[in-house]
Prior knowledge:
This protein folds into two domains: 38-67, no CATH class; 85-379, Alpha Horseshoe (Serine Threonine Protein Phosphatase 5, Tetratricopeptide repeat), CATH 1.25.40.10. 54% of the residues lie in helices and 4% in strands. It has helices at 3-9, 17-33, 54-57, 67-80, 118-126, 142-154, 158-170, 179-191, 195-207, 215-227, 231-243, 247-259, 263-274, 280-296, 300-321, 325-337; strands spanning 37-39, 46-48, 106-109, 114-117, 362-363. Strand 3 (106-109) and strand 4 (114-117) form a beta hairpin. Bound molecules: zinc ion (3 copies). One zinc ion (ZN) binds at residues 91, 93-94, 116-117, 119-120.
Amino acid sequence: MNIRGALQGKRPQYRSNMFVTKKWSSWFRLSRESVSTKTCGACERELPDESYSVEQRGLRQSIRRCEECVAASNQLVLMKKGRTRSEADHCSICCLPLPLDADGSTLFKACCMNILCNGCTLAAANFGMEDCPFCRVPTPDESQALVMIKKLADAGDPLAVYNLGTKYEYGEYGLEKDVTRAVELYERAAELGVKEAHYNIGVLYDEGTDVEKDVAKAIRHYESAAMGGDVSARYNLGSEEHNSGNYDLALQHFLISAKMGDEDSLGMIKAAFMDGLASKADYATALRGYRESIDEMSSPDRDKAKSLGFEEILRTAAHNLKVPERWMEQSRRRAQDWTAPTAAVAGAGQCTKRRGQMTAAGDEIAERRAATKGHDPKGWRL
Ligand SMILES: [Zn+2]
Ligand SMILES: [Zn+2]
Ligand SMILES: [Zn+2]
């Protein structure tokens, strides 16, 4: 058959009146039925319109999903994403994953928005380094730090926007406590991909003390944070499922966070195993993953810093830098501010969720500039 012939073959055939009528009537029948029911492209059930979200109703059958199938696939994505620590969760100097304990084992630097582990802070202190070990900017006091954070936030730095939010939420650095402003900043930071911002919004709506309680909204934000690799958000999702009696989903969440090195999650799996809600294999893989993560998070410098304790690191720094006692006093107070409440480990009973985290790490603010040689603030590299 030549091309012309092929084209001719595709010409619409003559239709009898009867054919047209039949076609019309079947279309009419279909459209009348589709007012009340639609077929889900995944489970292939014919379900009433209310089983679909408004936007799903408009889609063609092959890609249309009922709400049950949407929830199931969302759950699948939730369990698949955020199973490892993100790039942002690594020390900017030694590049190892940051420790998860919020007891002052990390330092947040307002000058360059970097988070450093205590191992690197101790190494810098031993070296007699006075300025930020990353960007060499002198450690600022509170008002200088606020200027730095605001400047970076105005320039659209996601971590600066988030950190400014924490200052408003807790009324720090001389700012008046303003939770509404904090939520605005968190929402902006969350849009820019800061998982901690999602987490903090989640905690605010979950607790409902400073904003109107909205657990569904809190969970949505916990989910976004967890999919970005936030361990505390993953733990809270596990707690939420546990407290709702969904032990299987709770176990899936806790397995992920335990393997990322979270001790409380490991404790929950152990309790679940003892209650017969998790298998021995679950506990064994969680324990193995947990230990591997702990190994990845340790280094000789960090071990030394840990054995010395935050106090001793400060003393080393103070001794090397010849700084006054009051700097140590202030830094010590800050370190205590960040001590995280430990989660209760219970069997099938209630499971305590983790409360908000302030910054991703403790701030370091020093007054030592007064005691050391004067720095010209204009000369700071930002
Ligand atoms: Zn379906
Ligand atoms: Zn480090
Ligand atoms: Zn810096």
